[in-house]
Amino acid sequence: MHAKTKSPATKMTLLEQLDYSERLVTETGHYHGLKKLAVHDADPLKFEAFHSRILSTIISVRDTMKYIASSPAIRDFEEFVIGLYTPEGDAIALSTGIMVHVHTLSEFIKFMIRNGYEDDPKIRSGDIFENNEAWAGGVHTPDVMTCIPVFHGDILIAWIGAVSHELEAGTYEGPGMSVFAPDRFGEGLHISAEKVGENDHFRKDYLLRLKMNLRNSNWWSLDDKAKLSGCLMVREALGKIIDLYSLEYYQQGVRELIEEGRRNFIKRVKMTMVPGVYRGVTMPVHKRSHVEFVHPLAKGDFIDFVHNEMTVTAAGHVELDFEGSTGWSFHPFNCAVGPMNGGFWITLTQLLNYDGRVNDGAYLAVKQYLPEGSIVNANYAGAATSLAWWTLIPIFANVWRMIGMSWYARGFIEEILMSTPTCMAGVAGFDQYGQHTGYQNFEMAGESCGARGVADGLDCGSPIWNSEGIQGDAEVWEMTGPNVYLGRAFSANHQAFGRYRGGQGWQSLWMVRGSRLVNVTLTGSGCQNGGVFHKGLFGGYPSPGWKCLWAQGTNLKALIDRGKKVPQSVNEAEEMLKDGRLKAKRWYCGPLNQWSPNMADYDLFGVIYQGGSGYGDPLARDPALIEKDLTNGLLTKDIAKKIYGFDGDKTADRRATMCQRRLRESVPAHTWWRKERGRAKKGDVSKVVSETFARSAQLSTKLKDLYLEFWRLKEFPYKDTGSADFQVEAPTGFYYPKSARKPAEPVKKPTRKRQ
Amino acid sequence: MSEQANSQEVTRALQDRALAWPDLLKLMREPKASTRFDETIAVMQAAVTWKESILLPLGENLFIVNKKGRAIIKTTAGAELCAWNENWKMQCRVIVRRSRKDLEKVFPVEHLTIDSALVELREWICPLSGTLLDVDCVPPTYPVEIDFTPDLKAFYEDWLGRELPVKL
Known about the structure:
A: alpha+beta; B: about 170 residues; 5 helices
């Protein structure tokens, strides 16, 4: 049997069910038109037990999956998730883990339904579908979705899906996320919403395809088996739940869970936020012109400028509008609707939907307006999204900051939390076992958070993309690849200053061990190449920057043999390279993206993991917190004095003096405006910034209008985009997820007068 | 002590950042109290030296207040900047850090990698007290934007269910 057969219960195909469900939402504003929650209201305790049974099943299955999986990303760093979906593809319940995929799995299922998979390749009991395709709802090639339909007799009653992040995805460079691919043809193996198994088994030809196209295929294929096992375990448990509650109760109950999720989301927004318009800017800087071996299409320096505008409506809905952002380009940082939905979901699940009802209900109360052709909605069929996270992380971290402003206004300061960039070391070549390899070191999952409203940013916490992320054991990475740690430690004074500081920056320095042919890619999300991740809150500063290092042809072996000092941090290695204690044929230490030359035993590489932004005026910092940082070696006395005005019992006087100095050194904003206007009129800025403004204006007048209004100018000085005037058509021939369209008549917003 | 008075005391301690970590965790885990906004306003109002009623806190040391029936933006130190929906930053004093030398005054030299050709820092300062109200990080010549324009009418009338005490 397959789902095309109209079920006796619904008399509809899956496509008809999906259309019907969406029509009911449009017409009534409620999921499945549920104005009343009949099952819930009849017996709320039974309903709660029903939900708990589903959720606990999914969470416990996830823990079992970990021990079937092969890759360190799953076993040690929690980079996976499993969830339950309605026949139409709406999320009912998700496990803990990478919550980004609440809605991406949903889009994958809808992609199959809308593209006629009921007819071909048909949807049958025992089928296994897989996807990592951004056009089919995925985020990027390493995030691999595995999905099965669940039948009850002839009726398709559910989908179960799981996602794992693969450390190796067959990219041109080697590690799972490409930094330098110009388009999708260099970002690795695509599984474009395919049937890869039948009768609860993966097909041999699919497993062979993995073996032939991946460097570390065991990771992918064993993780696939872990996901399939998890899906089958949930399927079995679902049968028992239906036996206990009845099929009718299950079908009505899951719909009510989603509608309840929608209502609870709105309730929480109205309880904790303030309606209005919130604004922010993110501008990850990308430089590749200095990299020796980059595809000509990708050889350039640019800023992916993103204008974030978040509107909390009077109805309690949250809308994100990205008009004014620059366009997609030949790099792997592009986003499509799938990645943007993923980014929004990690925000919603961690900040607003954290009470266990993580389902698609909230999706019905949010919208994203993603301008077609922009960096947040690339419309080129060949666009790469392999490192979409380098755009998503700063964008949605900034949304966290904006939500923090709302919580401050309502007095819920205990909830304010800012996130962190992700800085990354990737390794490719041949490993200590003589095998070809490629992977990103996922200790970055323990990067330090931004400041909170009531405390410093968590040191070695978790990044925006995985609420359970940890650094993991250094030994795991020493087994994974041809490298040993020379040091992994906090970096003194590397913090975003504020009343509450961002999480402390820390760094790792590795020595190549067991390979004669290996190279590394080094990069950071939004903080690399001289950029700033995003601003802090209420007077808090951003972090000072990001650095990476590689050194080829070193004299490290001689230093070790002679018992001499060996560097233990990136900064120490840089210092020793500069003063000659450490020698290398070639080396680099700085903020630019790197693809090192081939290295071998005793060569070095390292990265500084930058923490998130600060909160509040640094002069308001509690002296006790400063003393704690001094004691722990996270801060030096000179910086404590210079930035925090900390001077023992003279602190109050020193801070008063520093405030007076600020008043002396500053100018009235209007004085600055009058002087700066001449520069703004001429457009007297660096080439990269000038091209950024021009690229924004190429897609929309939003930023241009803002510029002309603010500076009271008639002509926009930025014309040259620095790139070919090149347009492409969006893909045709298949359905793919689309952005919501902005209303023709914009919703009336509070007026904002000119300065 | 009544439950209501206790809740007000907890909010006071929260605003003073005087709660111990277990108490903070408890607050994070509990359902959010509908009384929090009014309790917060009461604590903030008691901490400022001026008389205007606070309508909405915009950030540390920045408020929308009721000044004779009009909503204006005012700092803790008492600087009255502008109407509630105008660009308050343009009524502040500002330090713009636009060169490496400028940035070195804030960031440790060994860690500083922010490229001043691409990003400038604008520090918005209260004209009365010298308190740092906000720090923007934007490309040079980027227009000055305010980060939040509340919908005061919807907030007071639709969400809080009370009359907005000012005329917008």
